[in-house]
What does this fold into?
Amino acid sequence: MGFLKKRTNKKFDYKPRYYKGEGNPYRIGHKFDEYRTTVGSNKGLKEKFKSAFEEFEGTKDRGFNKTILIIIAILILLFLYIIDFDLSIFKNPL
It folds into this structure.
C-alpha cells in the first residue's frame, strides 16, 4: 500500500570541503522555525490544526487583538456614516 503514503524528498548530508562553520550551510529554513511547534514532521491534517491552535493560544500578546477590534469598530462606524445609515434605530424610543 505504498501508493497512499506521501513521498518524501531525499536528504543528503553533504558538507563542503573548506566549510568551517557548524551545521549544514545549504539547509533552507525560516529564521523562526526553531521557535514554532507547527513546523517539522509531516503530520495529518487534524494534528496540524491542533498544534497550530495550541501555538496560537500560547501567545501572550492579547493587546494586539483589542487594538484590531477597536480599529474594525471605528471603520464600521465610519462606513455607516458614509453611506448615511440612520443610527437612531438603536436608541430606545421615549
